[in-house]
NADP-dependent alkenal double bond reductase P2
Amino acid sequence: MEVVNRYVATRHHIEGAPTEADFEVKEETARWAPDSGEVLVRNLYLSIDPYQLNRMKRSSASHLAVDGILPGQRIAAYAAGEVVASACEEYKVGDVVAGVLGWEDYTLFKPSPAVLMSKVADADAAGFPLSHHISVLGTSGMTAYGGLFEVGKPVKGEKVFVSAASGSVGSLVGQFAKLAGCYVVGCAGTTAKVDLLKDKLGFDDAFNYKEEPDLKSALKRYFPDGIDIYFENVGGEMLEAALANMNTYGRVALSGVISEYTGGGRRAVPDLLEVIYKRITIRGFFAWDFLPRFAEFNAVIGGWVRDGKVQVLEDVSDGLESVPSAFAALFRGQNVGKKLVKLA
């Protein structure tokens, strides 16, 4: 079986903020054979995530944990799709799967313990749209839940600060922290996003960081009694300001530093004396750290979504050709919630 497969590739290594011109849509023939042991998936939803930019650089610390992306080659990414041909018993034609597929129309994979892939129950029967399986029930939900509960370890009544709080992870962290009985403040880059955090997602308070000339003073206003947990998605001055306002034995769950990905912003220079004498714990992590507990986390998160306790924000673009603009928009602050591309 042969299919024409379009895929998105970078034209070159990307060292600054990405633009649509950094990408191209290429075409190849994907070949599946009955004796190959492979599964051919027609992709339906693609996950668009900021961390991919680090993979696109010529050199990045991220390459220690995930493979770098070479110009002209297909880009592996979390996605959901439908099996259209299978040479193994585990997957049948018509099965819907979610896992590491790619920014492309079709993906071939060979099942193995090293391949992150799972079958998705009938989305309608489960009460969830398919898109949820790569957002709140995918890597975004796993990052938010694992980062907050396994790294942050919230206790009822504690004070939680979430940066980039209207993004795919931050929007969930704030809601999870409220369910844990915490006081939650988030920051975002527009008035509309701030209103969304307070009015729809239930944050106790929120502010537009672009309107604050002194972030340390701003956080002191919102947290007069200090911050116990900081869920970090931004880096730079935001991290410095949060550390200055942390309480003794505070915890920083370091999920991302998007302001530092493009090289355009000032890198964080944390006051290490704050860390030492406040005995602050700073721990970096990413979604795959919690892979063994994926099903456990999703059972809890799915229950919250089903009961209406968690609101899911998804920002969906249409068509493979929209992947470059969707990705670039992440670094312009133009997305709300999880950025996805729908192919069919």
About this structure: The longest strand covers residues 2-10. The CA atoms of residues 132 and 138 lie 7 Å apart. The longest helix spans residues 139-152. The mean pLDDT is 93.
